[in-house]
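Lab meeting, item 3. Inverse folding demo.
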């Protein structure tokens, strides 16, 4: 018998054993099913069967929450529950379930709170609870670190941990924790900064490389690796060599909804060059337009579009036509703190022209001053 078959036997012999159903569900992958006493049960069915037997079965609520997507719901005893509510139900029954605290933290929005047994918790506090209960949960340490801003610290079991400490703690527990390597790379302030992990010093770039060697599907790691590489630089990940452009291409392929990956890919396409992304060809302007489809307020995409247009050229986005000046105007409007956008706007204007931005009129000279 395999592990799954042991639980299947238990559920078959005693169909009123809730934990047998929970563990059977845990061992069903994807759309797998199990035949129990002539009936077929999928993952969700197993958790629901456990809750029919015992509505206070905390592990069943946890399993059901992990099974649900962020937008789906499930009916239990004539009541609809979302993912977050399943974890809350689990914790109201058993407040010492570390995975439920961790998953609850993942569910909450920025600034969100949740009340469990009369006490209110923030996202950060959910991760803190997960670590207090199970201090070897590497991902809980990573997410706690992500929620520490600047020099903020968190008290865990009488010890203070800063952002960097949390990532290093995660890597002590699991040196193959890709999110910890990625977050450590993000935390390092410059490309020359280093962090010591297991007696070895790593730069920002090397942290992203470590992350990708473990999980090559991390789009932000590919994007940030591209930012680290110098012009003409290359990097080898899992025996394959990548240029800067190819790093951005990988980021766009892994996460086609990453607007800045498209912008930087466009920046690295010269002239009439194209890039093949998930079976479609994209030129320079196509990349910027793709970024704007994802985020119409993406200032770098508007700037790139304005810079790549020929004299008197126009581009159509969202059924409106823009020339170079109008693109640069959009860039400045969405991010007035970018000096290149102001200079590019000035360069696109006739010498005596003016533009109206953020409730003020600017001449060419004033754009350059900004």
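The presenter then showed the designed sequence:
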């Amino acid at each position: 018998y395999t592990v799954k078959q042991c639980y299947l036997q238990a559920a078959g012999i005693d169909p009123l054993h809730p934990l047998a159903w929970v563990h059977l569900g845990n061992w069903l992958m994807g759309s797998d099913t199990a035949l129990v006493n002539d009936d077929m049960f999928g993952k969700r069915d197993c958790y629901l069967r456990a809750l029919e037997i015992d509505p206070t079965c905390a592990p069943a609520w946890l399993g059901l929450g992990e099974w649900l997507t962020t937008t789906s719901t499930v009916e239990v005893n004539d009541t609809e529950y979302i993912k977050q509510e399943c974890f809350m139900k689990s914790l109201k029954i058993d407040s010492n379930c570390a995975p439920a605290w961790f998953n609850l933290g993942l569910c909450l929005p920025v600034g969100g709170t949740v009340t469990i047994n009369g006490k209110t918790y923030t996202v950060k506090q959910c991760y803190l609870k997960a670590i207090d209960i199970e201090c070897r949960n590497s991902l809980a340490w990573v997410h706690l670190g992500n929620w520490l801003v600047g020099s903020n610290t968190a008290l865990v079991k009488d010890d203070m941990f800063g952002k960097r400490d949390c990532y290093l703690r995660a890597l002590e527990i699991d040196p193959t924790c890709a999110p910890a390597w990625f977050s450590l790379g993000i935390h390092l302030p410059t490309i020359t900064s280093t962090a010591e992990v297991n007696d070895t010093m790593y730069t920002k770039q090397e942290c992203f490389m470590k992350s990708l060697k473990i999980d090559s599907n991390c789009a932000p790691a590919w994007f940030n690796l591209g930012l680290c590489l110098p012009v003409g630089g290359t990097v080898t990940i899992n025996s394959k060599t990548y240029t800067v452009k190819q790093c951005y291409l990988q980021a766009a392929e892994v996460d086609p909804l990453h607007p800045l990956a498209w912008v930087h890919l466009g920046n690295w396409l010269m002239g009439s060059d194209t890039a093949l992304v998930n079976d479609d060809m994209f030129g320079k302007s196509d990349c910027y337009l793709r970024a704007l489809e994802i985020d119409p307020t993406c200032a770098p995409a508007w700037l790139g579009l304005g810079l790549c247009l020929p004299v008197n050229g126009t581009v159509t986005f969202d059924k409106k036509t823009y020339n170079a000046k109008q693109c640069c105007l959009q860039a400045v409007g969405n991010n007035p703190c970018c000096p290149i956008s102001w200079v590019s706007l000035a360069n696109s204007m006739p010498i005596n022209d003016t533009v109206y931005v953020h409730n003020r009129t600017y001449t060419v000279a004033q754009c350059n001053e900004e």
